[in-house]
What does this fold into?
Amino acid sequence: MEYNQLIHEFLEGTLDKAGEAQLFLGLSTSDELRNELKQAITLDKAFNKRISAFVPTSASTIGIFQQLGIGTAAGIAGATLVSKSALSSFFGAYSQAIIAGLATLAISTGIFLGLHSLETKPDEKTAAQANQINKPNTSSLKTNNLVPSIVSNEVVTPKVRTIIKYVYITENQDKDIPAVDSPVQNIPDVPKFVNMSNLLYSPKPVQLNSKGYNSNLNGLDQPIYSSCTDNLEINKDLGLTFEIKGNGSWSLPSSTLPIYSNSFLNNTSITLNYKISSNFDLGLDLRQENFYQVYKGTNELNDQFEYRQNPMYLSLSLSGKYTFFRANGFEGIAQGQIGGTATGLVTRGMIGVQFSPYKDISFILGGEAGVLTYKHQNNTFNSNKIGIIYGLGFNF
Amino acid sequence: MRKDFSKYTDEELIKILKGAKPDSDTAFGEIYDRYGIRINAYIRTILNDRQMSEDVFQETFIRFYQKVQSEYERGTIIGFLITIARNLCLNVKRDAKNTISINDYDLIYQDGVSYEETELSDLLMRALDLLDIEYREPIIMRFFNDMPYDDIAEVLEITAARARYLVFTGKHKMKDLLDPYLKELSNK
It folds into this structure.
């Protein structure tokens, strides 16, 4: 294979190991080949940079959304539409989210306190701040009636010091262009002046990263084409979710013993999940919960006893959460957990719903079944229970 | 408050888009966010005429919104959008009169002049203009639209291997055109 082809495939990320070995050997011995690679990288880098010049104009964006009659919902401030006042834009944009965040926090805290009589409250300030993380910049269009100014985002083309010689020949343009079935329809004129208060939508800002590279070049800077999408991602989430949940449970068989309640978490769990894919989260769950234990054993005199206790156990579990449907902000979730306590193995399964009125906050409600498996005098016992789970999730 | 569909897949967005308002409108907004720049890049590069490009760009998204209900069944959104944009571009070019084509070209290099990368970016567009449309289209789809070769092949109705060949050869031609500038930049 020629080196040009090797370099091309290497930059595409499709070169096999044998090809890589051949290329690297060539690179180590040939200045010319090294320059060839540098040039290829430079060219790809130029492609990457150029994409930022193609942000649609404000007129185009407005024209599309007006013609489609999309104009009632809230908009997102973007590259092409910018509010006049940064301060008013900030409060205009975030006021709903702040108020809603505080309201949901207050409601959920009330539920939490009512059901659990917790002595400690979630840190409201922190929760409110968490609700703001990774919110896209939003314009003031929906919350106040400020009329933002339209700022063109066209990139100014730098002056190029070249001499280009063209020979122009007029000819029939049909020669190379195949006919296409659907003719172009008349495109209505885009209004030059638009009432911005009717505007629904504006695109997100483009933020190309400073390098425009990925890192699969073993140290060599390599712009790749697939990095285009990554470069255009805005406010990318960390993929982390912090959940705090309470649970009310019923032992099977039912317990007549009081529950030990002077505990650290008192039938509460905290979970940190990481989004592995759009439908699956993996995380760790720390929980304190009671299990009603009934087990039999013998003493030194071989007398048989039945022991009953209802202690509170602290468990650390591996948690997997699968989202099996999404509709109108609701998500159906199934969760499995396996972990351990000082006494034995804990396994849990939960099915429920998660409601996310906003990007950063979720309400969780579900039904759960759990089993504590433990040993006493070489005999294995199970403590079973069912319960409900309710709580809040904060997405980062 | 506008719902956040940024984490939704293309397939999920299409389902919502086919559903009821206002979610369908928001889903359309998300699709516009994702692909607006890339589609604009394709149209601007193919037509090389700002005003005409804006018209075609708007028409592309309007047609997408109208056609997605009845005609979109499978495949990628970018592929569907590019197909619409491509047909519109070809029709515009076909209908245009007195088209000027460049049959001969020469980029003259002034020795000793220092060029920045931003200038190269501009030169890149000029070099793209000089490429035959057979090479230009797959290069734009690959580099600006970030499309996999299978999708490029589907839109252009060629094989994936042919698409790979056209991108490789087209890029090589561009490299030859820009050779003096690339040499200077890579020697810095």
